[in-house]
Amino acid sequence: MLDLTVAERLALKARAHQLKPTVMIGNAGLTESVLKEIAQTLKLHELIKIRVMAEREQREAILTEICTQLNASAVQHIGKILVVYLANPDIHKIEIKQMPRHRGKKPLTKKQLGNRG
């Protein structure tokens, strides 16, 4: 399972906001065919949303299972939506930018970023 820094996770959350769920996991849970579909979709898009129709504990277990089996990173888990990222060096669609810094070399806060507009 890949680990992301806070800045990388924030950048990926921002990119995932506009995405629609591409894979849906129903009552049968995480089957081999669903896992293969997730792997193929991650290979094409690098960042995907997954809708899971299960209880919270099961959703957390499914997210952990997906990330460990596919060596992906969990970006976000809100409600029934999971956001997963797996970098593909062949297409490399998503470039994760570092947070802007000011004179003190510290990352800008959300309030400071909002005032830049």
Report what the structure shows.
The protein is 39% helix and 17% strand. Helix 2 links the parallel strand 1 and strand 2. With 117 residues, it is of the alpha+beta class. The chain has a four-stranded mixed sheet with strand order 1-2-4-3, sandwiched between helices. The protein has a single domain, classed as Translation Initiation Factor IF3.
Describe the protein's topology.
Elements: H1 6-16, E1 23-25, H2 32-45, E2 47-52, H3 56-70, E3 73-78, E4 81-85, H4 110-115
Parallel strand pairs: 1-2
Antiparallel strand pairs: 2-4, 3-4
Question: What brief labels describe this structure?
Answer:
four-stranded mixed β-sheet; 4 helices; 117 residues; Translation Initiation Factor IF3; alpha+beta; 4 strands; 17% strand
User: What separation lies between the terminal Cα atoms?
Assistant: 36 Å
Domain count: the total is 1
Helical content, roughly?
A: 25-40%
The CATH architecture can be given as 2-Layer Sandwich
> How would you sum up the global shape?
globular
Structural class from helices and strands?
Answer: alpha+beta
| Strand order across the largest sheet | 1-2-4-3
CATH topology: Translation Initiation Factor IF3
| DSSP strand content | 15-25%
Tell me the number of strands: 4
Q: Compute the number of helices.
A: 4
What is the class in the CATH system? Alpha Beta
CATH superfamily: YhbY-like
Tell me the Rg in angstroms.
16 Å
Sheet of most strands: 4 strands, mixed
Q: What is the residue-mean pLDDT, rounded to a whole number? A: 86
Order of helices and strands: HEHEHEEH
- In the predicted model, the low-confidence regions spanning at least 5 consecutive residues are none
